Amino acid sequence: EIHIKEPIEKEVNPRLLPGELLLCEANMVYKYIQEDGSSRGTYGKLVCTNFKIAFLDDHSASDDNEPQFKNKIVGENDITLQCVDQIYGVYDEKKKLLTGQLRKYPETLIIYCKDLRVFNFCLRYTKEEEVKRIVSGIVHHSQTPRLLKRLFLFSYASAAPNNTDGRNQTVMFDTLEDWRDELERTKGNVKYKAVTTNEGYRVSEKLPLYFVVPICVSEESILKYEGRGIPIWCWSCHNGAALLKMSAFPKDQDDSTSQTHKAFLDGIYKTISKPPYELLKTDDLSSSLPSLQDIQTAYTRFKQLFLIDNSADFWATDVKWFSLLESTNWLEIIRRVLKKAIEVAECLERQHTNVLLIEESATDLCCVISSLVQVMMDSHSRTKSGFQSLIQKEWVIGGHGFLDRCNHLHKSDKEEVPLFLLLLNCVWQLVQQYPPAFEFTETYLTVLSDSLYVPIFSTFFFNSQHQKDTSTSGESLKTQSGPFRFLTVWDWSVQFDPKALAFLNNPLYAEKPKPDKSQRKTARFKHQRQLSLPLTATKSSTKRGFFREETDHLIKNILGKRIGKFINSSDEPPNSFREFYDSWHSKPVDYHGLLLPRIDGPEIKVWAQRYLRWIPEAQLHGGGTIATTAKILDLMEEVQSLQVKMDEEHSQAISVGVHSVPLLRNSARLSSLFPFALLQRQSIKPALPTSTWKDLEDEDDLVKRDDEFVDPSGDIS
User: Which residues form the signal peptide (predicted)?
Assistant: First the structure.
């Protein structure tokens, strides 16, 4: 019954990166193509290295069928060891999770990946010895706990030490200068200062070497409790209000200690809160947002909807798609996080109130909210280099524990929480609601989410700057050429060639017009977002209302009467939130000003490109955003070539990068899975099996029964 493709005659060897070692391999492995439930597939070799698991067939040897969007590090049939989520073995048609030592070896190996790919390898025709070696090798190297120094990151850095430093205009925030420049950019240097107190990590190993605090905070205060209870600056609004974060004191303290802590905090708060001129709102995120455990549980349920083995599974879940989606609670968590960010934006923008985000370590939900607020309020964070600098500032240098939260070392599942993915999901909502406001595309966000699992970049593989610094310069780790030099993920040329890089940039980005020199002087003291587009000048009244007489009484009213109510954070925000939200949405959008996401009901959507890209059944043939992008890129190429002709006629020697745009002439043939998967075959929806109809008839809940009439294309939204 199996459609057998002749085994490959020629020897295919894996392409190894510097420092990559082949650990085990098996020949005559049959990889199923998950299509229509049939057992079609291809023979090849399955290998495991200290970097990845790879399947090599005769196509691997030829470059004829190269995808247009090829990753130079991780191929189509490659799975990095950090990207492996779970491994199942099939024994007599029963699936069993594989961990640790195996007594019996399976007939089929199913690998579920963190980027939601699913691989099925049939081992029935492979030699027994090779099966034992490859299965135990894959399980051991991808599932068992390991030491940090055993990560491929270090092997790669020592074997390829002379890599280019790809800063690419991204501010790394690892020097005092970077922080001072950011203070100056946001005009925060009047009230805040960059400090060197933590040089040599003498305050705390969790804090970065350099950070920014209110000017009145003394060095003694910072040293007193290892940085706890100190407001750390994130960003300043154009009106002077600042966003701050703080690592809280432990809650289970005896009375005298908690009194001492309270007195310390009161003193610190007085440096920021000076009514009526300077107001402060504190927000304890651990009580006002879902717990980390809730976030992890919701995402685990959510991703199961997309880890689909075969076509039958897809259509079975499609019937109850909406009820299944709602039961995961993932979209509701995204909605709550966006809502919280809008609340913070309202305080900063309309009430001119400083906001202090509080969390136990200030490195989890604080990172999500502070980043999201900056993306919404600062148009610089919506450019590619600005967004990358923001991730560096709030997450990488800010001390988010990527190593633990992504469970890269497989040490503890309890620590694993997809907080960075949560941020990317929230940013995606904004990108798809306001495409012209962003210099990058959803493809950029998808690729960034994939890069979490590529251990040749140091960006997402340390818990703190201290951990990276000690690993980089540790005596035992010095290579012959000196300390390690790790790559940063922001050097996208390491993963993609220029043709593919074009997909990361938004061709419809509404660039900010540059003011002429005469205007620049008057606008200098204001935040850069003040220079709004002429078409949307009406929008500016809410943002600069405090300069205008007609809204002056409103501001006084808010500052006077309502601020008392708003200081105590509650689950249901006061009416001022709704008023602010509705008022903003009733006006034209200024793509360089404040952006508020729409968060009501169906406005929160599934990030289709990331979650449905490997499922042929969910594709739109010749449709989706990629088809539109393809047409725009075609048009851009045509305009650029005309420009070149005009320049030649005028004898101007201007070099225009025509070839930086990919040629996508046949965009009608593309599907919405592009550029991650090539054009897939048509998938025909099967007649529903009797059992499914019977299940539906038995259900009393009318809401669930309605789902059966949903068209499969409903998945895409």
Answer: none
